[in-house]
Fold:
Amino acid sequence: TRYEGASGLKDLGPPDLIEVQREPGRPAGSIKKIVFGLPPGVEIGVSELLGVMTGGQPYHLFDARPGKRFGAAHIPGARSAFPKEPGFLGKLPEDKSALLIFYCGGPTCPFTGHSVKVALDAGYTNLRGFQAGLPGWKKAKLPVHAEPAWLAKHLDPQHVILDVRDKAASDSSHIKGAVAMPVANLQAMTQQFIQQQTVAQLPGVSDMRAPLIVYADSHTSKEALLAYKELRNWGYGNTTVLRDGFAGWQAAGLPAASGPAASQIVFVKKLAPGAIAPEEFIALQQSGAGVVVIDVRTDEEVAAGLIAGARHIPLERLEDVAPQLAGDDEVLIYCANGIRAEMAHQTLNAQGVKNRFLNETVTIAKDGSYKL
Structure:
């Protein structure tokens, strides 16, 4: 397989857009990472965007992703404006010379360029595109905001809400379902991880992709910003700060509770369609009852370790042997991080083979033991 724009599968993953050229029953001939460009002089980087945001020049920052993604995470100060919506131009200012900055889901997302084109065609003359998008902003570990209205619809165990104010404040009143986690506690945990040389991990949240929402009195509060920094440094890439903080939450009349907040996190990971819960995978793999476990990694990866009892079928050969897997037993698929396992899941679905995939990072020892 030839790769364009990437050295191999390890360089590809969500939210990348790829184009695959292949013939049925054969490995892919080529895999191309699609990257969208901007007109000359339009693109700006992180430092330039920060300069605009912290300077005195008026500007308008627009999140060009589909609106449903905006509430969960966006760059501070941005407004949602999806270029494929009929009312897109109505969200832009009347002044055609105003500075407009668009961003979306990164270089492999088309909506920054699409927004710039529509605005140019409408006569706007002062346009910029932050092509690195939200992924680039997150990579720089800069604050990301979540909308209160969005959070009010996700007060459930699949979202971790952390009240990082001091204990007296959270004991008085807090967002319904929030866990008291003063920022001083997070900082003390960081020092403990360093001293003990252990992996930084929030108690009860082993999934580093878990959605974490932190809040203090305001999104500009020192506690909220420090907590965000600690959690991002630990590796939690989906951490956000609640816009307007608890003061804004109360002012909007959103669900709050009185009395002490919970002290322990209860997190339940939301499974992707076709995925299997880690606990169930472990139980079925250990019992071996009614299941066939398939490893779709490469020969080189499997040489370092294969889960005990698993069968190795590289992803590129899976389609050829799929008919042999049809039967009463359910197929459980895993790879290194869930990406290829999901591709294999789709391949077997198309062949009518009953299966689920493990959407987890897997570390496998030479003796067949493993850790998720």
